[in-house]
Amino acid sequence: MVNEEGADLQYSREGAIAEITLNRPKKLNTVTPEMGKQLMKIANDINDDDAIRVVILTGVGEVFSAGSDVKVLDEYGTNWQLRNRKDYGRAIWSIRKPVIASIRGYAVGGGLELALSSDIRIASKTARFGAGEVKLGWLGGAGSTQLLPRLVGYGKALQFLLTGDLMGAEEAHRMGLVQELVEDGELDTFVRDLANRIVTNPPIAVQLIKHLVRVSESTSLGVGFEYENDLFTYCFTTKDHEEGIAAFREKRSPIFRGL
Fold first, then answer.
1. What's the pLDDT tens digit per position in 87-143?
2. Given 4, 14, 113, 228, which residue is catalytic?
3. Which of 5, 34, 75, 133 is catalytic?
4. Strand pairing of 2-5 and 9-14?
5. How far apart are CA 14 and CA 2, in angstroms?
6. What are phi and psi of 41, to 5 degrees?
7. Quick one: pLDDT band at residue 70, thresholds 50, 70, 90?
8. How many other β-carbons are positioned within 10 Å of the β-carbon of residue 227?
9. Are 49 and 203 in contact (CB under 8 A)?
10. Angstrom distances, CA of residue 134 to CA of 41, 98, 140, 236
11. pLDDT, tens digit (0-9, with 9 covering 90-100), for 184-216
12. pTM to 2 decimals?
C-alpha cells in the first residue's frame, strides 16, 4: 500500500485503486493554489502508474468540497497568472483512469466542478450541490458551464448556474448529475465495491471506453463510429483479449494484466 499525506491533501493506493482525499475539514475541504499544483502532480503520477486502474475522489469529514478557498484567491497572483493556474478541476479531468467521486455533504462551487470532472458520481442522500459563483460576481472556471449541460441538458444547467441555488441529492439524481444515491453510512462501501468491479476488467479496454465516451461528446456520430471500430479492433491485438477468451472457454475468472 502506498500512502502519501500532506497537511491538506492525502493520496494513497491499495492494490489497483488509488484514493485522493481532500483534507481540510475545518475549511469545508476548500482547495488552495498549492493543492491545485499537488493534484496536477498526482494526476500525472496516476497516469504513469500502470498498477492503478481506478481512482476514488473524496473529502474528509462531512463535506466533499466547497471549492476554492476564497480567502487565499490572491495567492494566484495577477489575473494572467490566475488564468494560467494549475487548476484542480482540470487535474482530475486529465486522469485517464476512471474516477469515481464519493460525495457526502456539500459539493459546491469548485467542489461541484471536481465532481463534474470525475466520471461517475455516487452521493449520499444528504448531499447538496451548488454553483454559487454567480452570486459573488463571477462564474465557475473549472468546467461547470461546459460539463454540466452535457450531463443534465441546456435548460436545467442554465437554471442551476444562473440562480446559484442549492440542489438536493434527489433532484441531482433525477437530473442525471448523480448516478447513484446511497445512505450516508453505506457510501464508502458502495463506492469501494463499484471500484473493485471496474478493477476486474481489462485496463486497456476500460481506458479506451472512457476515452471514446468523451470523444462522443465532441465529434460527429459517423466519425465516432469509425473511431470506435478502430479501437475495438485494437483490443484484439492485446494479450488481455486472449486471456478473456481463454477464461470464457475454460469457465474461470480472467486475470487481466493490461497487456
1. 888 999 999 999 999 999 999 999 999 999 999 999 999 999 999 888 888 888 788
2. 113
3. 133
4. antiparallel
5. 7
6. -65, -45
7. low
8. 15
9. no
10. 30, 30, 8, 49
11. 999 999 999 999 999 999 999 999 999 999 999
12. 0.92
Distance (Å, whole) CA 249 – CA 237: 19
Q: How far apart are CA 79 and CA 18, in angstroms?
A: 34
Q: Is 113 a catalytic residue?
A: yes
Distance CA 207, CA 112 (A): 24
Is residue 250 annotated as part of the catalytic site, yes or no?
no
> Which three cell numbers mark 186?
453505506
Comparing CA positions, the residue from 252, 241, 248 lying closest to residue 203 is 241
89 and 113 Cβ atoms separated by less than 8 Å:
yes
Closest by Cα among 102, 87, 89, 85 to 18: 102
Residue 100 near residue 155, CB atoms below 8 Å: no
Cβ contacts of 167 within 8 Å, gap of 6 or more? 128, 129, 130, 160, 175, 177
Asked if 86 and 35 count as a contact pair (C-beta separation under 8 A), the reply is no
Query: Nearest to residue 35, comparing CAs of 59, 9, 14, 10?
Result: 9
Measured between alpha carbons, how far is 243 from 239 in angstroms, rounded to an integer? 6
How far from chain centre, in Å, is Cα 90? 10
Q: Residue 26 carries which DSSP code?
A: G
Task: State the burial class of residue 217 (Cβ atoms within 10 Å of its Cβ: 0-12, 13-18, 19+).
Answer: exposed
